[in-house]
Amino acid sequence: MRRINRIFLFSCICIVFIFGCGEPAKEPKPEETKYETTLNIGLIPEHDIFHQLKRFEPIADYLSKKIQANINLIILTRYGNIVDNFVSGGFDAAFFGSFTYTLAHSKIGVEVIARPETNLGVSEYYGMIFTRKDSGIRSVKDMEGKILACVDKATTAGYLFPMAYLKKNKVTDYKTFFEEIYFTGTHEDAIYDVLNGRAHVGSAKNTVFYRLADKDPRIINELHIIAESPKVPENGLAVRKDLDESVKKKLKETLLNMHKESDGVQVLNDFGVQRFIETTNADYINVYKMLNQLGLNLSTYEYVNE
C-alpha cells in the first residue's frame, strides 16, 4: 500500500511539473496607439521594396508619435505609378525622386517640404552613365548598336539624364541608335545588369552605385563611368496641395527638428543621414534645365515605360 501511495504521489508531482513548469505566461503586447488622423505616404521603388520599407519604417514610427497620426507607408511598383496613384490611392504625401517630384508638382500640385542630408552634408545626387571596363565603350559613338539599361521613364538619373546626354551628343533617334533599350525598375538592377553583362550601358544614381560598391567591390573594379549629370535634390517629402495646413506644418517642423531630439538622432543614424533640410521647388532647377534641353512638356509627358 505504501508503495502504491508513493507511485501515486510521484505521478501527481510529474503531472504538476509537466503542466505547471512550461514556458512562463507571456504578457500580451500592448496595442499600437491609434490616432484620429491617418496619413498615407508613398515610396518609390529605388531599392528592393522590402529593404525600402524596412529603411523607412523607423521614420514613419517617429513621425507618427510626434504628430499624433497613423502613418501608412505604401511602396509603388514603379516610379510613374506614384503620380497616377497619388490621387486615386488617397495619398497625403510621398518621398519623390527629383523627376517624379517635378512631374507631380506640374500635374497635381504637390508641394515639397524637406529632404535628407547625409553626415557629409550632402543633400543632392547625380546621374551616372556607365559600362563595363572591358566593353571597349568610352563615348557615345561606341554605344551604337548596343543595349542600354535605364531605370524608369520617370527618373532623373535613370532616364532623363541619359536622354539629355544622348541629345547633346547628336543622337536624335535613340530607338534606332541602340539595339535595345529596356527599363529595369530599380537603380540596383540597372547597375547589376551592366555588371553581369545583360546590358552594355546603364544609367543610375550615384548614391545607389556607391552604396552597392561598398559591399560589392566588383562594381568599382569592373565598371567604367562615362558621364555624370548635374546635381539634383535627394528624394524629398512632398505633400498634396490641399493637405490641412496644421498637419503640413507639423510634418515639416518634425522632420526639420529631428536632429535636435535624442530619439530623432537615433532614427536619423539608422536611416543613414544627419538631418532633414528645408526644400522648395526652386531647388529642382537642374531637373527643369534637362527637361528644357529635351523639349519635354511635363503636362503632356508620357511617363509610362514602353
Please specify the SSE layout and strand pairing:
Blueprint: H1 2-20, E1 37-43, H2 49-67, E2 69-75, H3 81-88, E3 93-96, H4 98-108, E4 111-117, E5 124-125, E6 127-132, E7 147-150, H5 156-168, H6 174-177, E8 180-183, H7 187-195, E9 201-205, H8 206-215, H9 218-222, E10 223-228, E11 232-233, E12 236-239, H10 245-256, H11 262-271, E13 275-278, H12 285-294
Parallel strand pairs: 1-2, 1-3, 7-8, 7-9
Antiparallel strand pairs: 3-12, 4-12, 4-13, 5-11, 6-9, 6-10
Helix pairs in contact: 2-11, 5-12
Describe this structure as you would to a colleague.
- The protein has 306 residues and is α/β, with parallel strands linked by helices.
- It has two domains: 144 residues, 3-Layer(aba) Sandwich (D-Maltodextrin-Binding Protein, domain 2), CATH 3.40.190; 103 residues, 3-Layer(aba) Sandwich (D-Maltodextrin-Binding Protein, domain 2).
- The chain is built from twelve helices and 13 strands.
- The protein has a six-stranded mixed sheet.
- Helix 2 runs antiparallel to helix 11 and helix 5 crosses helix 12.
- The chain starts with a helix and ends in a 12-residue tail after the last helix.
- The N terminus is likely disordered.
Instruction: State the domain count.
Output: 2
**Helix content class:** 40-55%
Largest sheet: 6 strands, mixed
Low-confidence stretches are 1-30
SS elements, strand count: 13
Q: Give the overall average pLDDT.
A: 88
Which geometry do the CA atoms define? globular
How much strand? 15-25%
> N-to-C SSE series?
HEHEHEHEEEEHHEHEHHEEEHHEH
The N- and C-terminal alpha carbons lie at a distance of 90 Å
User: In what order do the strands lie side by side in the largest sheet?
Assistant: 2-1-3-12-4-13
Fourth CATH level, the homologous superfamily of the largest domain: Periplasmic binding protein-like II
CATH architecture of the largest domain: 3-Layer(aba) Sandwich
Structural class comes to alpha/beta
CATH topology of the largest domain: D-Maltodextrin-Binding Protein, domain 2
In DSSP terms (H or I, runs of 4 or more residues), the helix count works out at 12
CATH class of the largest domain: Alpha Beta
